[in-house]
């Protein structure tokens, strides 16, 4: 006597609720396949998607014309390029130093239209038509600017890393007339950090160039 149940005794209601039928299997695989194809387009696995993705990855650029140390330059830069990187990476003017790259140390100080700025915080594309002066453009050939000479006379540096920024800021400090006292000089030079601690001599140098000594 056979113990096998006849096929008709397994009613659909007796199947587990998740058991796939041929119809649901085909529907599921079609939907998943479509999603994979669509995902491939978005991720750039097809030629068309790759072009779109590549275009999306190219950062926007701009042309900017500006004068640096009396010389006109026109460059095309990534819109996010700082003035400091424009000077150092595009124009090869490495006198301006990158210390913190965040506006806290003053090592990157330069003059823009006669006013001191932290070049690491200044977007290059905003300087269309501007005039930039860096430490390289301060002297006149071998003729040092009075503050440059004063830094030598007062021995106002050790490692020298902060010195270009100190001098650019000091020049502006003198031009702005903020040299009435030692305290005033300290206050208006406070954005320039010297890790070697040459502050006393830096103030003396600014006083010398300003004619206070
Ligand atoms: Fe610009 Fe420090 S590098 S402020
Ligand atoms: Fe070294 Fe100023 S001289 S950081």
Model description:
The chain is an alpha+beta fold. The N terminus is likely disordered. The protein starts with 21 loop residues before the first helix and ends with a helix. It has seven helices and five strands; from the N terminus they run ααββαβββαααα. Helices cover 38% and strands 13% of the residues. The protein is elongated. Helix 1 packs across helix 2 and helix 4 crosses helix 7. It has a five-stranded mixed sheet with strand order 2-1-5-3-4, sandwiched between helices. Strand 1 and strand 2 form a beta hairpin. It has two domains: 78 residues, Ubiquitin-like (UB roll); 75 residues, [2Fe-2S]-binding domain (DNA polymerase, domain 1), CATH 1.10.150.120. The structure holds FE2/S2 (inorganic) cluster (2 copies). One FE2/S2 (inorganic) cluster (FES) binds next to loops.
CATH names the topology of the largest domain as Ubiquitin-like (UB roll)
The residue fraction in helices comes out at 25-40%
Low-pLDDT segments, ≥5 res: 1-17, 32-44
CATH architecture of the largest domain: Roll
- Could you say which structural class the secondary elements and strand pairing correspond to? alpha+beta
* Total strands: 5
Mean pLDDT: 85
Straight-line distance between termini = 123 Å
Radius of gyration: 34 Å
The small molecules bound here are: FE2/S2 (inorganic) cluster
Largest sheet entry: 5 strands, mixed
> How many separate domains make up the residues?
2
What order do the strands of the largest sheet run in, or round the barrel if closed?
2-1-5-3-4
Question: Quick one: CATH superfamily of the largest domain?
Answer: Beta-grasp domain
List the helices and strands in order: HHEEHEEEHHHH
Q: What spatial form do the alpha-carbon principal axes imply?
A: elongated
Question: What fraction of the residues are assigned to beta strands by DSSP?
Answer: 5-15%
Number of helices: 7
* Name of the CATH first level of the largest domain: Alpha Beta
């Amino acid at each position: 006597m056979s113990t096998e149940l006849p096929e008709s005794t397994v009613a659909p209601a007796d199947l587990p609720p998740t058991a796939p039928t041929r119809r649901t299997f085909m529907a599921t695989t079609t939907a998943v396949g479509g999603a994979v194809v669509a995902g491939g387009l978005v991720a750039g696995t097809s030629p068309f998607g790759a072009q779109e993705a590549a275009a999306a990855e190219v950062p926007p650029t701009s042309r900017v014309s500006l004068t640096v140390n009396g010389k006109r330059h026109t460059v095309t830069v990534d819109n996010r390029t700082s003035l400091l990187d424009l000077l150092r990476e595009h124009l090869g003017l490495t006198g301006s130093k990158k210390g913190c790259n965040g506006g806290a140390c003053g090592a990157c100080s330069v003059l823009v239209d006669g006013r001191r700025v932290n070049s690491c915080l200044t977007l290059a594309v905003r300087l269309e038509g501007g005039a930039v002066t860096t430490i390289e453009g301060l002297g006149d050939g071998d003729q040092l600017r009075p503050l440059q000479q004063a830094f030598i006379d007062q021995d106002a540096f050790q490692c020298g890393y902060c010195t270009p920024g100190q001098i650019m800021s000091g020049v502006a400090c003198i031009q702005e007339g903020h040299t009435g006292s030692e305290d005033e000089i300290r206050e208006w030079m406070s954005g320039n950090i010297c890790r070697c601690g040459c502050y006393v001599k830096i103030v003396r140098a600014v006083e010398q160039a300003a004619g206070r000594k």
